[in-house]
Amino acid sequence: MALFVVIDDDPTINRLICEALDREDHEFHTAQMLGQGFDVARQVLPDIVFLDLSLPDGNGLEWLEAFLEIPSNPEVIVITAGGSEQSIETAIYRGAWDFVQKPFSIRSMTHLVRQALRYRKDKSGKEKVVALNRQGLIGGSPTLHRCLQQAAQASTSGAPCLIRGETGVGKELIARIIHANSPRSGGPFVVVDCAALSESLVDSILFGHRKGAFTGAHADKVGLIQSADKGILFLDEIGELPMDVQKNLLRVLQEQTFRPVGALEEKRSNFRLISATHRNLAAMVEKNAFRQDLLYRIMGQEIFVPPLRDRLEDLDHLTAFFLQNICQQYNLPVKGISSDFLPTLRSYDWPGNIRELRHCLEHSVVSADPEPILYPQQLPNYLRVKIAAGELEHQRRPVSTCSEDKVISENQTPCAFGKPAGTLKEARAEGSRAAEKIYLKQLIFSSKEKTVKDLCEKAGVSVSHFYALLRKHELELPHGRST
Ligand SMILES: Nc1ncnc2c1ncn2[C@@H]1O[C@H](COP(=O)(O)OP(=O)(O)OP(=O)(O)O)[C@@H](O)[C@H]1O
Question: Which residue ranges does the record assign to the Sigma-54 factor interaction domain (predicted)?
Fold first, then answer.
């Protein structure tokens, strides 16, 4: 049994199609208006939509792509009444599976339905091979690859998408990749920087306004939501949206309609929403700083863009790419790098991610000029200071000695976390040497056993082994301890 939505304003046609579907035991929903049919389809997620091209509230052709982007990715069969060849051609080019001309018989309709379902079944069995347009994105690390796979999936669906990741990590670039690879690539990509929206003008910027709606509104203005019609609305840093704007936005997402400031009538905009944030929105919901209902609405699909420090494999390629790019921008011959340049870059944790890497390389290129080779000394001072501070910290607390002079209790962390020195085997040997020394110190200075024999019994070692251990750790028996 499959699920159908039939949208035609002619009740006879609706009845005829439904009769054919009923005979084959399929489930179906009908609508006589475009908007109503779209809402039903979004709710029930059909396998197939029958869509009349000429409906009282609009032209089905204009909405074809929106139907195709419904998360079930339905096949759309357009219905025409002696429709022009032109509109049938347009429908096919826009992704309609097939068309049917009125009038038609129940028999021909049944045949068409069976064919469409067979096609859909075959299609779902085959894995889609995706050749992604990467929009200049560099990197081939496994973590980035996973993220690109998610972006490829998001490109084929029309569901809202939430991109998470630290600042400068490439969230907007991923959103642009989704746009470029989606059926909406011919439409606009409209960016809204929610962190930069001034509270007094935010409604007007998003929804537009009518001339005279407020002081300074000298003419009608189209808002960003309207500008995103047939394309993608990218809400960057959505976590920064004020609460009352969140409420208005939720309404737009539910209804796909909005009202410009000062206008009486509602407008429709057929956009797909992609949002991005570096914040933990679920935690914000718990603190009542973000609406839960809005969170559910915006995260149909979630993509996490990993920080640069978790994909240092990409750093070499990114460095080569940016150096070429920057030198070109400054009209300079491409600079080389010294052998310690990349290791230095790798020893930094890049809180500002790819954006910070580009800025640092630009700084180096400019400060090195006219030298043909870049050295770590030409990196920004703040970065070199941070790397040096990290190294000092590491030297001050090497794994091997940090615990030696501390009494270790069960609940105490034996050492502060530093960068690991040497191999795991070496670290284990050092750790066990330190633990041995602490044990011996506790044994000979704190325990109640008075004689060496007692101490050896407690420790479970022979007397000769005990003296060997004391020599190894350069320890002496305190006065009062006797053999
Ligand atoms: N893998 C990459 N390859 C090439 N350039 C990249 C890559 N990732 C990011 N960039 C570049 O780094 C800069 C920052 O990326 P982008 O603006 O997409 O990050 P963001 O996560 O959206 O940042 P913010 O959180 O500040 O909005 C842009 O110039 C982008 O083109």
Answer: 137-366
Q: Decide if 175 contacts 234 (C-beta within 8 A).
A: yes
- The amino acid at residue 409 is S
- Between the alpha carbon of residue 74 and those of residues 10, 273, 368, 431, the distances in Å are 22, 20, 57, 62
Give residue limits of the domains in the chain. 3-125, 142-306, 309-395, 424-472
Sign of CA dihedral 197, 203, 208, 214: negative
pLDDT, tens digit, 9 for 90 and up, residues 459-480: 888 887 888 888 777 777 765 5
Q: Whose CA is nearest to atom 23 of ligand 1?
A: 168
pLDDT the model gives residue 479: 59
Question: Which residue's CA is the closest to the ligand 1 atom numbered 25?
Answer: 167
3-125: CATH class: alpha beta
Taking the domain 142-306, which CATH number applies? 3.40.50.300
Instruction: Please choose, from the candidates 383, 354, 345, the residue with its C-alpha nearest in 3D space to the C-alpha of residue 166.
Output: 354
Can you tell me the distance from the alpha carbon of 286 to that of 117, in angstroms, rounded to the nearest whole number? 44
Mutate to test the pocket of ligand 1, among 354, 360, 361 (most ligand atoms within 8 A of CB): 354
Architecture of domain 309-395: Orthogonal Bundle (1.10)
Question: Is the whole model's pTM more than 0.95, yes or no?
Answer: no
- Is pLDDT of 404 > 70? no
